[in-house]
Amino acid sequence: MTSTVPAQWKQAYIRPLPKTPMPQQLTDYRPISITPVLSRLTERVVVRRYIYPALSSPPPALHFDNQFAFRLLRPSSI
User: Fold this and answer.
1) pTM, whole model, 2 decimals?
2) Per-domain residue ranges for the chain?
3) Burial level of 63, CB count in 10 A (0-12/13-18/19+)?
4) Is pLDDT at 27 greater than 60 in this prediction?
5) How far is 71 from 14, CA to CA, in rounded Å?
């Protein structure tokens, strides 16, 4: 109703996950972000409903032909 995202949905817990069997240094860990389920579901709905349709039929002035790293995934493959 207020068009805002609740603060609880924006919080994430960062957990270190070891990259090696016997971590010795901080660089032997990779950060894993644990986000609330509702924020991930909301993000998926927004992307499927608004982002993918906007990218599949962009305005004529916007060209994606020269972008090599960007590839649009089909919503059914997610």
Assistant:
1) 0.49
2) 8-18+27-54
3) exposed
4) yes
5) 28
